[in-house]
Protein backbone atom coordinates (compact mmCIF):
# COMPACT_ATOMS: atom_id res chain seq x y z
CA UNK A 1 0.00 0.00 0.00
CA UNK A 2 1.01 3.62 -0.36
CA UNK A 3 2.07 5.27 2.88
CA UNK A 4 0.07 8.37 3.66
CA UNK A 5 1.84 10.22 6.43
CA UNK A 6 -0.31 10.27 9.53
CA UNK A 7 -3.63 10.44 7.66
CA UNK A 8 -5.82 7.41 8.31
CA UNK A 9 -5.71 4.81 5.55
CA UNK A 10 -8.90 4.17 3.54
CA UNK A 11 -9.69 0.88 5.30
CA UNK A 12 -10.50 2.91 8.45
CA UNK A 13 -13.67 4.75 7.52
CA UNK A 14 -16.77 6.44 8.90
CA UNK A 15 -20.14 4.82 8.28
CA UNK A 16 -23.16 6.75 9.60
CA UNK A 17 -20.93 8.45 12.13
CA UNK A 18 -19.42 5.13 13.34
CA UNK A 19 -15.76 4.29 12.83
CA UNK A 20 -15.03 0.94 11.14
CA UNK A 21 -11.97 -1.03 10.08
CA UNK A 22 -12.65 -3.08 6.96
CA UNK A 23 -10.07 -5.68 6.00
CA UNK A 24 -10.22 -5.57 2.23
CA UNK A 25 -7.14 -7.55 1.26
CA UNK A 26 -9.21 -10.38 -0.24
CA UNK A 27 -11.21 -10.35 -3.49
CA UNK A 28 -14.39 -11.97 -2.21
CA UNK A 29 -14.48 -11.41 1.52
CA UNK A 30 -14.49 -8.25 3.61
CA UNK A 31 -14.41 -8.36 7.41
CA UNK A 32 -15.32 -5.21 9.37
CA UNK A 33 -14.79 -4.27 13.01
CA UNK A 34 -16.45 -1.34 14.74
CA UNK A 35 -13.74 0.81 16.27
CA UNK A 36 -13.94 2.90 19.44
CA UNK A 37 -10.66 4.74 19.03
CA UNK A 38 -7.51 4.96 16.94
CA UNK A 39 -4.73 4.60 19.51
CA UNK A 40 -1.72 4.65 17.17
CA UNK A 41 -1.40 4.97 13.40
CA UNK A 42 1.91 5.48 11.60
CA UNK A 43 3.60 4.18 8.51
CA UNK A 44 6.91 2.38 9.05
CA UNK A 45 9.54 1.58 6.43
CA UNK A 46 7.76 -1.75 5.82
CA UNK A 47 4.03 -1.38 6.44
CA UNK A 48 1.30 0.77 7.92
CA UNK A 49 1.08 0.10 11.68
CA UNK A 50 -2.03 0.74 13.77
CA UNK A 51 -3.27 -0.07 17.25
CA UNK A 52 -7.06 0.30 17.27
CA UNK A 53 -9.46 -0.12 20.17
CA UNK A 54 -12.40 -2.15 18.88
CA UNK A 55 -15.77 -2.86 20.46
CA UNK A 56 -15.71 -6.66 20.30
CA UNK A 57 -12.00 -7.54 20.37
CA UNK A 58 -10.49 -4.78 22.49
CA UNK A 59 -7.18 -3.36 21.31
CA UNK A 60 -5.83 -4.85 18.11
CA UNK A 61 -2.63 -4.66 16.08
CA UNK A 62 -3.40 -3.94 12.42
CA UNK A 63 -0.67 -4.11 9.76
CA UNK A 64 -1.47 -2.80 6.27
CA UNK A 65 -5.16 -3.05 7.17
CA UNK A 66 -5.02 -6.69 8.34
CA UNK A 67 -5.72 -7.63 11.98
CA UNK A 68 -2.72 -9.48 13.41
CA UNK A 69 -3.62 -9.99 17.04
CA UNK A 70 -6.12 -8.69 19.59
CA UNK A 71 -6.51 -8.38 23.35
CA UNK A 72 -9.39 -10.85 23.30
CA UNK A 73 -8.09 -13.70 21.12
CA UNK A 74 -4.34 -13.02 20.66
CA UNK A 75 -3.43 -15.49 23.40
CA UNK A 76 -4.86 -18.40 21.40
CA UNK A 77 -2.42 -18.01 18.52
CA UNK A 78 0.54 -16.99 20.71
CA UNK A 79 0.10 -19.91 23.10
CA UNK A 80 -0.33 -22.40 20.26
CA UNK A 81 2.76 -21.29 18.33
CA UNK A 82 4.99 -21.55 21.44
CA UNK A 83 3.75 -24.13 23.94
CA UNK A 84 3.07 -26.86 21.37
CA UNK A 85 6.64 -26.93 19.94
CA UNK A 86 8.19 -26.37 23.38
CA UNK A 87 6.25 -29.32 24.78
CA UNK A 88 7.52 -31.47 21.93
CA UNK A 89 11.11 -30.46 22.73
CA UNK A 90 11.42 -30.66 26.51
CA UNK A 91 15.22 -30.16 26.43
CA UNK A 92 15.19 -26.98 24.32
CA UNK A 93 17.58 -24.28 25.57
CA UNK A 94 18.08 -21.97 22.58
CA UNK A 95 14.97 -20.57 20.91
CA UNK A 96 14.50 -18.22 17.99
CA UNK A 97 11.31 -16.40 17.05
CA UNK A 98 11.13 -14.92 13.55
CA UNK A 99 8.60 -12.09 13.27
CA UNK A 100 6.32 -12.00 16.29
CA UNK A 101 6.45 -8.21 16.64
CA UNK A 102 3.48 -8.13 19.02
CA UNK A 103 5.81 -9.89 21.54
CA UNK A 104 3.10 -12.40 22.51
CA UNK A 105 5.13 -15.43 21.40
CA UNK A 106 8.24 -14.18 23.22
CA UNK A 107 6.12 -13.58 26.30
CA UNK A 108 4.84 -17.18 26.24
CA UNK A 109 8.30 -18.65 25.53
CA UNK A 110 9.74 -16.71 28.47
CA UNK A 111 7.51 -18.79 30.78
CA UNK A 112 9.96 -21.69 30.27
CA UNK A 113 12.83 -21.39 32.78
CA UNK A 114 14.80 -23.99 30.86
CA UNK A 115 15.17 -21.68 27.86
CA UNK A 116 18.53 -19.94 28.19
CA UNK A 117 18.17 -17.62 25.20
CA UNK A 118 15.12 -16.40 23.31
CA UNK A 119 16.12 -14.38 20.26
CA UNK A 120 13.39 -12.52 18.40
CA UNK A 121 14.16 -11.26 14.90
CA UNK A 122 11.55 -8.77 13.81
CA UNK A 123 11.91 -6.66 10.70
CA UNK A 124 9.85 -3.74 12.00
CA UNK A 125 10.91 -1.95 15.19
CA UNK A 126 7.79 0.19 15.03
CA UNK A 127 5.53 -2.85 15.53
CA UNK A 128 7.42 -3.87 18.68
CA UNK A 129 7.41 -0.37 20.12
CA UNK A 130 3.71 0.19 19.36
CA UNK A 131 2.73 -3.14 20.94
CA UNK A 132 4.89 -2.70 24.03
CA UNK A 133 3.39 0.72 24.62
CA UNK A 134 -0.23 0.29 23.52
CA UNK A 135 -1.01 -3.45 23.52
CA UNK A 136 0.08 -4.75 26.95
CA UNK A 137 -2.66 -7.42 26.98
CA UNK A 138 -0.65 -9.20 24.27
CA UNK A 139 2.93 -8.01 24.76
CA UNK A 140 2.78 -8.17 28.56
CA UNK A 141 5.36 -5.33 28.64
CA UNK A 142 7.95 -8.05 28.17
CA UNK A 143 11.23 -7.31 29.93
CA UNK A 144 12.78 -10.75 30.45
CA UNK A 145 16.57 -10.44 30.12
CA UNK A 146 16.77 -13.72 28.16
CA UNK A 147 14.73 -12.15 25.34
CA UNK A 148 17.01 -10.46 22.84
CA UNK A 149 15.34 -8.24 20.25
CA UNK A 150 17.08 -8.17 16.89
CA UNK A 151 15.70 -5.79 14.26
CA UNK A 152 16.47 -7.48 10.96
CA UNK A 153 14.91 -9.39 8.11
CA UNK A 154 14.40 -12.95 9.33
CA UNK A 155 15.34 -14.28 5.89
CA UNK A 156 18.78 -12.63 5.97
CA UNK A 157 19.24 -13.41 9.67
CA UNK A 158 19.05 -17.21 9.33
CA UNK A 159 21.21 -17.32 6.20
CA UNK A 160 24.55 -18.95 6.98
CA UNK A 161 23.62 -19.96 10.55
CA UNK A 162 24.44 -23.60 11.39
CA UNK A 163 23.29 -25.71 14.33
CA UNK A 164 22.46 -22.83 16.66
CA UNK A 165 18.87 -23.33 17.87
CA UNK A 166 16.78 -26.14 19.34
CA UNK A 167 13.48 -24.52 18.39
CA UNK A 168 12.63 -21.92 15.73
CA UNK A 169 9.14 -20.38 15.76
CA UNK A 170 8.16 -18.53 12.59
CA UNK A 171 5.50 -16.09 13.71
CA UNK A 172 4.99 -14.26 10.44
CA UNK A 173 2.26 -12.15 8.97
CA UNK A 174 0.49 -13.28 5.77
CA UNK A 175 2.74 -14.14 2.80
CA UNK A 176 2.63 -10.70 1.20
CA UNK A 177 5.08 -7.80 1.52
CA UNK A 178 8.01 -8.39 3.91
CA UNK A 179 6.68 -11.80 5.02
CA UNK A 180 6.43 -13.33 1.53
CA UNK A 181 9.96 -14.79 1.62
CA UNK A 182 9.21 -16.38 5.03
CA UNK A 183 7.10 -18.94 3.13
CA UNK A 184 9.77 -19.90 0.54
CA UNK A 185 11.54 -23.26 0.33
CA UNK A 186 14.96 -21.52 0.40
CA UNK A 187 14.05 -19.92 3.71
CA UNK A 188 12.94 -23.25 5.24
CA UNK A 189 16.23 -24.81 4.07
CA UNK A 190 18.14 -22.09 5.93
CA UNK A 191 15.94 -22.63 9.01
CA UNK A 192 16.74 -26.36 8.81
CA UNK A 193 20.48 -25.57 8.74
CA UNK A 194 20.18 -23.10 11.64
CA UNK A 195 18.68 -25.82 13.85
CA UNK A 196 20.76 -28.15 16.00
CA UNK A 197 20.67 -31.89 15.28
CA UNK A 198 17.71 -32.34 17.62
CA UNK A 199 15.97 -29.18 16.42
CA UNK A 200 12.43 -28.47 15.36
CA UNK A 201 10.63 -25.57 13.71
CA UNK A 202 7.06 -24.39 13.64
CA UNK A 203 5.41 -21.87 11.36
CA UNK A 204 1.93 -20.48 11.04
CA UNK A 205 0.68 -21.98 7.79
CA UNK A 206 -2.50 -19.97 7.19
CA UNK A 207 -6.18 -20.88 6.95
CA UNK A 208 -7.10 -24.44 5.95
CA UNK A 209 -10.38 -23.00 4.64
CA UNK A 210 -9.18 -20.03 2.58
CA UNK A 211 -5.50 -20.81 1.95
CA UNK A 212 -5.36 -24.58 1.62
CA UNK A 213 -2.96 -24.17 -1.33
CA UNK A 214 -0.48 -22.27 0.89
CA UNK A 215 -0.83 -24.81 3.68
CA UNK A 216 -0.26 -27.74 1.30
CA UNK A 217 2.77 -26.06 -0.27
CA UNK A 218 4.22 -25.25 3.17
CA UNK A 219 3.65 -28.82 4.32
CA UNK A 220 5.34 -30.22 1.19
CA UNK A 221 8.31 -27.84 1.49
CA UNK A 222 8.85 -28.75 5.14
CA UNK A 223 8.37 -32.49 4.48
CA UNK A 224 11.16 -32.37 1.89
CA UNK A 225 13.58 -31.11 4.54
CA UNK A 226 12.47 -32.73 7.80
CA UNK A 227 11.86 -36.43 8.53
CA UNK A 228 9.04 -35.67 10.97
CA UNK A 229 6.21 -33.28 10.03
CA UNK A 230 2.92 -32.56 11.79
CA UNK A 231 0.12 -30.08 11.20
CA UNK A 232 -2.09 -28.81 14.01
CA UNK A 233 -4.92 -26.31 14.25
CA UNK A 234 -6.54 -23.82 16.59
CA UNK A 235 -9.57 -21.56 16.36
CA UNK A 236 -8.69 -17.86 16.21
CA UNK A 237 -11.87 -15.77 15.77
CA UNK A 238 -10.20 -12.77 14.09
CA UNK A 239 -8.45 -14.84 11.41
CA UNK A 240 -10.58 -15.39 8.29
CA UNK A 241 -12.37 -18.70 8.50
CA UNK A 242 -11.62 -19.01 12.24
CA UNK A 243 -9.65 -22.23 11.88
CA UNK A 244 -5.89 -21.64 11.65
CA UNK A 245 -3.03 -24.03 10.91
CA UNK A 246 0.53 -24.49 12.16
CA UNK A 247 3.13 -26.82 10.68
CA UNK A 248 5.98 -28.44 12.61
CA UNK A 249 9.10 -29.85 10.99
CA UNK A 250 11.42 -31.82 13.25
CA UNK A 251 14.82 -33.47 12.93
CA UNK A 252 14.07 -35.67 15.93
CA UNK A 253 11.08 -38.00 16.34
CA UNK A 254 8.06 -36.18 17.70
CA UNK A 255 7.53 -38.00 20.99
CA UNK A 256 4.55 -36.89 22.99
CA UNK A 257 5.54 -36.42 26.65
CA UNK A 258 3.70 -38.65 29.12
CA UNK A 259 3.35 -35.53 31.27
CA UNK A 260 3.19 -32.05 29.82
CA UNK A 261 4.84 -29.09 31.54
CA UNK A 262 2.51 -26.38 30.24
CA UNK A 263 2.70 -23.34 32.55
CA UNK A 264 -0.40 -23.01 34.69
CA UNK A 265 -1.27 -19.45 33.63
CA UNK A 266 -2.25 -20.24 30.02
CA UNK A 267 -5.76 -19.36 28.83
CA UNK A 268 -6.11 -21.71 25.84
CA UNK A 269 -3.48 -24.45 25.80
CA UNK A 270 -3.70 -27.21 28.38
CA UNK A 271 -2.77 -30.87 28.34
CA UNK A 272 -5.96 -31.89 26.51
CA UNK A 273 -5.70 -29.14 23.87
CA UNK A 274 -2.05 -30.05 23.26
CA UNK A 275 -2.96 -33.69 22.66
CA UNK A 276 -6.02 -33.09 20.49
CA UNK A 277 -4.79 -30.22 18.29
CA UNK A 278 -3.10 -32.70 15.95
CA UNK A 279 -6.40 -34.48 15.21
CA UNK A 280 -7.24 -33.13 11.78
CA UNK A 281 -10.67 -33.03 10.14
CA UNK A 282 -11.01 -35.35 7.16
CA UNK A 283 -10.79 -32.69 4.41
CA UNK A 284 -7.48 -31.50 5.83
CA UNK A 285 -6.03 -34.92 6.58
CA UNK A 286 -6.71 -36.10 3.04
CA UNK A 287 -5.52 -32.84 1.44
CA UNK A 288 -2.14 -33.27 3.12
CA UNK A 289 -1.88 -36.83 1.82
CA UNK A 290 -2.21 -35.74 -1.83
N1 LIG B 1 -0.08 -13.57 14.71
C1 LIG B 1 0.01 -12.89 13.50
C2 LIG B 1 -0.71 -13.49 12.33
O1 LIG B 1 -0.66 -14.69 12.07
O2 LIG B 1 -1.36 -12.70 11.65
C3 LIG B 1 1.35 -12.48 13.12
C4 LIG B 1 2.14 -11.92 14.26
S1 LIG B 1 3.39 -10.82 14.06
C5 LIG B 1 2.60 -9.29 14.22
C6 LIG B 1 4.01 -10.90 12.42
C7 LIG B 1 5.27 -10.05 12.32
O3 LIG B 1 6.11 -10.55 11.29
C8 LIG B 1 5.01 -8.58 12.00
O4 LIG B 1 5.33 -7.80 13.10
C9 LIG B 1 5.95 -8.30 10.80
O5 LIG B 1 6.58 -7.04 10.88
C10 LIG B 1 6.94 -9.46 10.93
N2 LIG B 1 7.65 -9.78 9.69
C11 LIG B 1 7.15 -9.81 8.44
N3 LIG B 1 8.11 -10.13 7.56
C12 LIG B 1 9.25 -10.32 8.29
C13 LIG B 1 10.58 -10.68 7.94
N4 LIG B 1 10.92 -10.89 6.67
N5 LIG B 1 11.49 -10.79 8.93
C14 LIG B 1 11.15 -10.57 10.23
N6 LIG B 1 9.91 -10.22 10.61
C15 LIG B 1 8.96 -10.11 9.65
Question: What descriptive keywords fit this protein?
Answer:
290 residues; alpha/beta; Spermidine Synthase, Chain: A, domain 2; Rossmann fold; 2 domains; seven-stranded mixed β-sheet; six-stranded antiparallel β-sheet; 31% strand; globular; disordered N terminus; binds S-adenosylmethionine; PABS; spermidine biosynthesis; polyamine biosynthesis; transferase
Which value, in Å, is the CA radius of gyration? 18 Å
Order of helices and strands: EEEEEEHEHEHHEHEHEHEEHH
Number of domains: 2
Helix count from the secondary structure assignment: 9
What percent of the residues sit in helical stretches (DSSP H or I)?
A: 25-40%
Coarse structural class: alpha/beta
Oligomer: single chain
The count of β-strands is: 13
* Amino-to-carboxy terminus distance: 36 Å
Binding site for spermidine: 102, 171-174
Binding site for S-methyl-5'-thioadenosine: 47, 122, 153-154, 178
Catalytic activity: S-adenosyl 3-(methylsulfanyl)propylamine + putrescine = S-methyl-5'-thioadenosine + spermidine + H(+)
Keywords: Polyamine biosynthesis, Spermidine biosynthesis, Transferase
Amino acid sequence: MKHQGNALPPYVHLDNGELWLTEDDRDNLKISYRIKEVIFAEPSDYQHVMILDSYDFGRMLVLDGVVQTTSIDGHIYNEMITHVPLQLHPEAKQALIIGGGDCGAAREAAKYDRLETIEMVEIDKKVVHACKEHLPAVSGNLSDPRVKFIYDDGVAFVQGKEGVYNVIMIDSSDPVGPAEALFSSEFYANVHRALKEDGLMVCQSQSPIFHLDILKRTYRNIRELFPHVLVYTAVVPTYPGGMWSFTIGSKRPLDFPAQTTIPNDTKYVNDAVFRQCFSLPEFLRSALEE
